[in-house]
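no rush on this but wanted to send it before i forget. theres a chain ive been looking at and ive put its sequence and its fold in token form underneath. i want to understand how the tokens follow from the sequence so walk me through it. thanks a lot i owe you, the record is right below:
>
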Amino acid sequence: MLKLSCKAVATYLPTGEKKLFSLSTRPNLPLVLRSQKGFLIQDPRVVPEGFIHYFSFSPEPPQLPDSVGYTLLDPEMRYLDDGDVVRVAQDGSIRVLFRSKSDHNSVLLTEQCNNYCLMCSQPPKRVNDDWIVDDVLELIPLIPRQTQSLGITGGEPTLFAEGLLEILRRAKSLLPRTAIHLLSNGRNFTDISFAQKYAAIGHPDLMVGIPIYSADPARHDYVVQALGAFDETIRGILNLKELSQKVEIRVVIHKQTYEGLPQLAEFIVRNLLFVDHVALMGLEMMGFTRANLDDLWIDPIEYKNHLSEAVRILNVYGIPVSIYNHPLCLINSDMEPFYKKSISDWKNEYAPECASCIRRNDCGGFFSSGIKFGYSKSITPFG
């Protein structure tokens, strides 16, 4: 598991210096570009002039003018590379916002949410964090143009409606070939005016992932801990599809949802046949999941037949469907065509039992939190 945030060993930020830095490891970068980048020192003997900030792992600071910033990094961040983007705060806090060699980049737009899901891996907070919108707007121009995909998550990103729309406009302008995947509970798209503004952006590759946890409104509302959420979510999806927007339905499988998987699949094919994708997802052992573990945890081996039945229903009706966040050995073999390695690389690990598995490269493994806090006892290495 990669450490995406930590405290610097030491940092100096001159007054007024920018706090987001695109990193360069190229000492021969043209001078005109150096003033826009931070230099990641790989050899203490090579410290070119002209960069706006310098980052190093060597305890010996380079000789720099007083007006130039410097940060001594924690050794756990040695994975940083050319094209990565980091945020540095005056107190020395560092957050990696973008990794150029990763296919799993996403930005957290807010920690606020109007749901309170039992298994939320990013528990909502009642804080004023609208400053994050400005950070993301500053980040987008720093992201390499060849980036294939970028996620926008929360909390609930649509709570900052105008900020989100401006971010999507900027992404369309500066990253037109980058697929954007927005995670939302869909409820605010019941506002047709907001949905129309969202659609009017006309981003060429934008999809919103919206969770539905049950065909039973009461069950869905219980999982998300918000009365009336099911109806608002469905109306939000209908508004988006009426406006020809891409919608993915996401289903996290746990003790409260697994029995109803086939019924939910039936509901989708009868009422939402026009959605673009359905993702059936394993449980992440973070946030509220750990607090509600007794009410949520079920060994995936116990629901693999429910999962298979739901996939077959969706597939028969032509809805693209994928299985995310499951070890390969815990699904039925006929489900492999729908299986995806989906866990973000920075929080992906394998159990000790997986060491001898001959299909490890085909398997998505586990969330790091799952390795730490418990996983299926039915892991069976291929071999």
Residues 300-316 form the longest helix (17 residues).
